[in-house]
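Our platform keeps sequence and structure together, in a single record for each protein. Nothing more is needed to write down the fold, since each code stands for a local backbone conformation. An entry from our holdings is shown next, in its original layout:
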Amino acid sequence: MTTRLPLLPLPRLTQARAALTREVEVVDEHGAHGTVSIPAERDLTVYVDRRELVTLMTLGAQPELLVLGYLLNQRLIESASDVESVTVDWEVGAAAVKTHAGIDRIEERTAKKVVTTGCGQGSVFGDLMADIDNLRLPPTRMTQAQLYALVNAIRLQESTYKSAGSVHGCALFTLEPGGTEATMHCFVEDVGRHNAIDTIAGWCAMQPPAALAGDRVFYTTGRLTSEMVIKSAQMGVPIVVSRSGITQMGHEVATRVGLCAIGRATNRHFVCYAGVDRLVQQPELARRNPA
């Protein structure tokens, strides 16, 4: 008889918040003076068990979830339950992570840094391509009607981008099999798309399994690079939609792991770059006038 170890609780998270925008004085092309909102960007240094790990540049909307998701997407922890607490203090610009049992071989695993294509020149640790062949994605399919519903939900979403610009947005949706609707569960904006997807990964890790029942689709305003595709696949999301395009490595990785990558998705236009078998095409919908 196998004895099961008791499950550890989810981590305790502070609720540190900071203003997402600030007002600055500007002069326009006519010489007129005024004020506009711009995104507030701030540095957050992450310490894991009192060891400095990385400094993230962020808006600071949900920093605890950002840190948790970052550790998950870097594969430094296996689940949120590996972490006892995440404490963020904006007065000193620091996030203190306390784990239950430490991170195995942390010095070795964080020795190699790869500079990403993300805004703010982010970095990831280790080999980006390690273990991707072991990823197994669910057999999710999305109808063209659901794709249009998803894009329209993003269009209607109130956002910092609409008021201040200069940020990326990401969202997590679920689909009803064969339906026409897409349900948004989480929408995150940050100065870099990597921060946004990491925050969503942290949010997912804190949810009970039943809260995200259904097929998942990830949306981003940013381009689909290899890192974005890998992070989506690591989250078990088999369909990614972008307002932007895709890179060569992003395309290669999506094809390799069987992920559906859709770009240039605005209004009723889109381009499916990979995984077209996951898209239930309804070309007649593209010829209709939007309601």
Summary: The first strand starts at residue 12 and ends at 13. The first helix runs from residue 63 to 73.
